[in-house]
Amino acid sequence: YVGFTLTTNALHAKAIAVVTKSKWAHTFLTVPPMLGREMVMESDQGGVRMAPFDIDYRANPNQAYEVYRFKISQEKIDQSILMTMDLLESPYGYVEYFWFTWRAFLKLFGKDIKAQDNWFPVGTVCSGLVRLFIESAGYRNIFVGYGKDSANAQDVYEIVLAHPELFELIESKV
Question: Residue 10 contacts by C-beta under 8 Å, 6 or more apart in sequence?
């Protein structure tokens, strides 16, 4: 599944949402349960990691989220999870924020540079991880018009909403 979240008590999350004019500041993937526990794969300030969904999201009163089922075969999902797992423990892409901030600034003047590549494709941000997951499943075409590492969480959310044939809302805590 593909999830979107906003940590309601985190200054950095609110800043991301404001700068990018987003409903969500973060996106993540759910992965098959480990020992019966639902898990997410995400890229946060510590880098790409696995975390328990129930503790970090469901039971956390400061997390608003939506989760969408990716309506494709389990074989494609498994293949995509394997591709994203190669990024586990890779560092977070902090320097990509400079490009995203510049993009947000230019949008104020009616210019969107999303088709350009991010200047600093170093590390992995959450939207890059989720984009890799979706593209690895064979859906690279839904990111047409976006450069390398140029889609933020809101962009991915809008893409998900634009493709109800591929994504279905299954859980929400707003």
Answer: 25, 62
Average pLDDT over residues 71-87: 94
pLDDT reported for residue 14: 65
Other C-beta atoms closer than 10 Å to the C-beta of 157 total 22
Note the pLDDT tens digit of each residue in 45-63: 889 999 999 999 999 998 9
Tokens of 174: 């707003």
* Residue 10 pLDDT: 63
Taking the alpha carbons of 13, 29, 86, 100 in that order, is the dihedral positive or negative?
A: negative
**CA gap 81, 31 in Å, rounded:** 7
For the entire predicted model, the pTM comes to 0.92
* CB neighbourhood size of 92 (10 A): 19
More confident residue, 122 or 69: 69
Q: φ, ψ for residue 166 (rounded to 5)?
A: -110, -25
